[in-house]
């Protein structure tokens, strides 16, 4: 089984404190923390572990539905290790206390990894459409990495005897998921230094809201390749509500829908031109329709929603026809 700093790939310094002189950033200090803030070691995989290999730690939402918003990892590396670690940040559904189906994932990079014995936390903001945790579910959050290309990198590990043993798992490409405290791995493991923040996904009872701009009867003309932004706005229903902007020629039948985490959407005139092209509109042609917005409470499984009070609102979308430039034969 492949191993990390704990197994002689680097001289271990034990214990060492993050307090010198490492800028740790927020550290997900307002979220769920299972380590004591001191890394006695770092765990990693050799290339023979295969792609993907990974680690994860258990997280238990305080309420449901719940939405994680930030994940923090403590990282270090060998002097010969890659300075920038690219990996897949993953959230798994907990099935019988083990990682089950992947609920969501994204590829991220931790840049400028310190060389052991220095360790630093890296904070990753999760997208607003990151999967919610519903029912009574718990989850596992961690990473998948390719040790063939991401060499000499390690996740911080708490091995203090006073730290409560926290559920975590580790796996090679061949599997299976294994308890990191297993004698074949890291028997002094107490917790991976993985932290996470989040909040209730329930926005609360939705309040009436209005569409604000553009005004009814407006025309927006797209321009191929233009970087000029256009913004469509509406009032806020609730601070944590999410929205869907809809457009159609005969609402409620929709030609296009855009999910929005806040009370506006912005795109460039060039992006609008591409969008109108995908909707079948030729250059020089226009589309007369209406737009509206729905707010969502995100209180699964009920999933309350509310339409704007003053919508729909008419809006013509037009594709600019490029001017012809004279030329001679």
Structural account:
By secondary structure, the chain is mainly β. The protein is built from one helix and 22 strands. Strands 3, 5, 8, 10, 12 and 13 form a six-stranded antiparallel beta sheet that branches. Strands 15, 17, 18, 20, 21 and 22 form a six-stranded mixed beta sheet that branches. A five-stranded antiparallel beta sheet has the order 7-6-9-4-11, with no helix packed on it. β17 (242-248) and β18 form a beta hairpin. The relative contact order is 0.17. The model is unreliable at 6-26 (pLDDT under 50).
Question: How do the helices and strands line up, and which of them pair or pack?
Answer:
Elements lengths: L15 E2 L20 E2 L1 E3 L9 E7 L6 E12 L7 E11 L2 E13 L9 E6 L13 E7 L7 E6 L9 E4 L19 E2 L1 E7 L10 E3 L4 E5 L6 E6 L7 E7 L7 E5 L3 E5 H10 L7 E11 L8 E3 L5 E7 L10
Parallel strand pairs: 15-22
Antiparallel strand pairs: 1-2, 3-10, 4-9, 4-11, 5-8, 5-10, 5-13, 6-7, 6-9, 10-12, 14-16, 16-19, 17-18, 17-20, 20-21, 20-22
Task: Provide a short characterization of the protein structure.
This protein has 329 residues and is mostly beta strands.
Notable traits:
329 residues, mainly beta, six-stranded mixed beta sheet, elongated
Helix content: under 10%
DSSP strand tally: 22
The helix tally amounts to 1
How would you characterize the largest beta sheet? 6 strands, antiparallel
- Low-confidence sequence ranges: 6-26
| Approximate strand percentage | 35-45%
Rg measurement, Å: 25 Å
Query: What is the SS-derived class?
Result: mainly beta
Distance between the termini: 72 Å
Shape, principal axes of CA atoms: elongated
Q: Please, what is the average pLDDT?
A: 89
Order of helices and strands: EEEEEEEEEEEEEEEEEEEHEEE
